[in-house]
Design a protein that fits this description.
Length: 432
């Protein structure tokens, strides 16, 4: 927790000594229409989870249409604008026996829906370099981050203030009261009561930055987050990057009681006794050595406290886990320790710009499953290619594979063994 105290003091000193940002965003606004944009993202997503222990396999293929409109701001001291989005996902494959529910929800008859759709809008105001936005939006902060890893993005409803009045410093404060998941047409199917968020990021130099955030998720948890990122350059194409992330969470008693109730494969239900609250700390430290087209990463992650690190379906978004060892498994179980070794290759130096490959191996142990030590491991590969020119410019093709294995204690606690394939084809179109 020393890093949190250091970050708070550093942010305060930096904010007091930095010069105000030279240019005002609002003074440079050209107008509501003049700065407006309308974009359409065509996304095809395929998921296939092949379970190895007799579980029912799941697979889904869907076509997504993601339309986003962003107006400019009216001119004057306070600018006014509007942002809006429209989402449509059409199921192309994956019947009731195979459907992946994180892409298409089930209807009242237990069958996957044929399509999901949603629309949202937000009004925004800008004064100097501060923007206030109210309505439907997609916030992306360590303690409240929308998920866009399937077919359609998650969204939230509420108010967010983003201020960049001081050069190098971004501050955020907001309150949200609805969370719409990726697979549903419902406006608030997650059941979020309210979440209050405050925090910011400051770049001390081009090579050193720090972040500090706090969130109060009503009747679920209070979370604190800190990050320090430092890049040590050796030459024009060589550097060593250190990245430290830490979350401290205090969970509500009723939430933990429900979350830790376990039903094993034999149908036995175990409901452990829970104190008034339980805490969790999860942290990770990674070191990345980059040399031209190559990068080598080593990381260690550790979980301590009374509970696992919870996120995703508790109202703080499916991407609110900014730690090193988050792949198919997040290696975020109670008392877990995990280690990562990975390698990245950018093929631009080999005559294929736009082609990128990442491979990683992560091993975790010491998990307190309640029935013994849980152990898990994952072998991850992802290759992505973005067309650089021609009629298909910006077309993106991404294929990722996870091979996940765990011991008997871990299977009932978290996941059965599986091989997973995710494939994405994305084509962005600029309409306006």
């Amino acid at each position: 927790m020393k890093v949190m105290k250091w970050s708070v003091m550093a942010l305060a000193v930096a904010a007091g000594t930095s010069q105000m940002a030279v240019a005002s965003q609002q003074s440079e606004s050209k107008g509501f229409v003049e700065d407006a944009s309308l974009d359409l993202l065509l996304r095809t997503t395929y998921f296939n989870r092949d379970y190895k222990d007799g579980e029912d396999d799941v697979r889904s293929l869907g076509q997504g249409f993601i339309t986003s409109f962003e107006s400019g701001f009216t001119q004057g001291t306070i600018g006014v604008g509007v942002d809006a989005f429209g989402l449509l996902g059409v199921r192309l494959d994956g019947g009731s026996g195979y459907n992946y529910p994180a892409m298409f929800e089930f209807d009242s008859d237990g069958d996957p829906v044929r399509d999901v759709g949603q629309a949202g809008a937000a009004v925004k105001f800008q004064f100097s370099n501060t923007v206030v936005k109210y309505g439907d939006q997609m916030p992306f902060m360590p303690v409240l981050a929308y998920d866009d890893s399937r077919l359609l993005p998650e969204s939230f409803t509420g108010t967010l203030i983003t201020s960049k009045e001081i050069e190098g410093l971004e501050l955020n404060a907001g309150r949200f009261t609805a969370d719409s998941s990726m697979q549903s047409s419902s406006h608030d199917d997650v059941g979020l009561k309210s979440i209050d968020v405050v925090g910011g990021t400051y770049a001390f130099t081009d090579n050193l930055s720090a972040s500090l955030y706090y969130a109060d998720n009503e009747d679920v948890a209070k979370k604190k987050y800190a990050n320090v990122n430092y890049v040590m350059p050796f030459s024009s194409d060589q550097s060593l990057t250190f990245d430290f992330n830490i979350y401290r969470s205090d969970y509500d008693k009723d939430f933990i009681q429900a979350a830790t109730t376990v039903t094993d494969s034999a149908g036995n239900v175990t409901t452990p006794g829970v104190r008034e609250s339980q805490d969790n700390t999860i942290w990770s430290l990674s070191a990345k050595y980059s040399a031209g087209a190559h990068a080598f990463i080593l990381a260690h992650q550790r979980v301590t406290g009374d509970a696992a690190y919870y996120y995703y379906d508790i109202g703080d978004g499916g991407s609110s886990i900014w730690v090193a060892n988050s792949f198919y498994s997040d290696f975020n179980s109670k008392d877990e320790r995990s280690w990562q070794a990975s390698y990245e290759l950018d093929f631009s130096d080999y005559g294929v710009p736009g082609l990128f490959w990442k491979t990683a191996y992560v091993y975790g142990d010491n998990v307190d499953t309640g029935t013994g030590e849980g152990k898990e491991r994952e072998f991850f590969n992802q290759v992505q290619y973005v067309v650089q020119s021609g009629p298909a410019k910006d077309l993106s093709l991404k294929l990722r594979n996870s091979i996940y294995r765990s011991n008997d204690n871990m299977r009932d606690y978290y996941s059965a063994d599986l091989n997973e394939i995710r494939a994405f084809i994305e084509y962005p179109l600029s309409i306006l």
